[in-house]
Amino acid sequence: MRNVWIALISLGLAGVAVSTQAKELQSNDRYMCSWGAGTAARAQELKLAGVSLYAARQKLQTYKFTKPWMRMTAMGITEQTYDSPSRIKPAALRQSFYEDCVRFKLARK
Predict the structure, then answer these.
(1) DSSP structure string for 1-40
(2) In sequence order, which residues have a C-beta less than 8 Å from that of residue 57 and are 6 or more positions away?
(3) What is residue 58's three-state secondary structure?
(4) 30-58 burial code (b ≥16 CB/10 A, e <16)
(5) Alpha-carbon separation of residue 67 from 9, 23, 39, 90 (angstroms)
(6) Which among 50, 102, 53 has a CA at the least distance from the CA of 78?
(7) Long-range contact pairs involving 89-92 (C-beta distance under 8 Å, separation at least 24)
(8) What is the pTM for the complete model shown?
(9) Under 8 Å CB-to-CB from 15, ≥6 apart: which residues?
(10) How far apart are CA 14 and CA 2, in angstroms?
(11) Over the stretch 46-56, which tens digit does the pLDDT of each residue have?
């Protein structure tokens, strides 16, 4: 009887572990991560080109955003990018941002 209980508990824990790993991101989460990664890459391009933070903010004001939360989020991402001493290429920054965002979104679930 003891072996049966150990086997059942082991199978239950394995099932929970598999279901936890199999979590998928919703399409909205993927879109947010992709959009944020693109915003960070554009900010890094401006930073490496020598554009000031003030000018980058002004440029953001001219963009048309499809959702209300995007403008302030873009401002925050741009400021964080400018505050970072990093000089990596925008493509590498985009990839890193996207991977970290996806990891964060999965960890929240």
Answers:
(1) -HHHHHHHHHHHHHHHHHHHHT----HHHHHHHHHHHHHH
(2) 75, 78
(3) helix
(4) eebbebbbbbbbbbbbbbeeeeeeeebee
(5) 47, 26, 14, 24
(6) 53
(7) 89/44, 90/41, 90/42, 90/44, 90/45, 90/48, 91/41
(8) 0.75
(9) none
(10) 18
(11) 999 999 999 99
Type of residue at 26: Q
Contacts of 102 (CB under 8 A, 6+ apart): 25, 29, 30, 33
Note the pLDDT tens digit of each residue in 54-94: 999 999 999 999 999 999 999 999 999 999 999 999 999 99
Residue type, 47: K
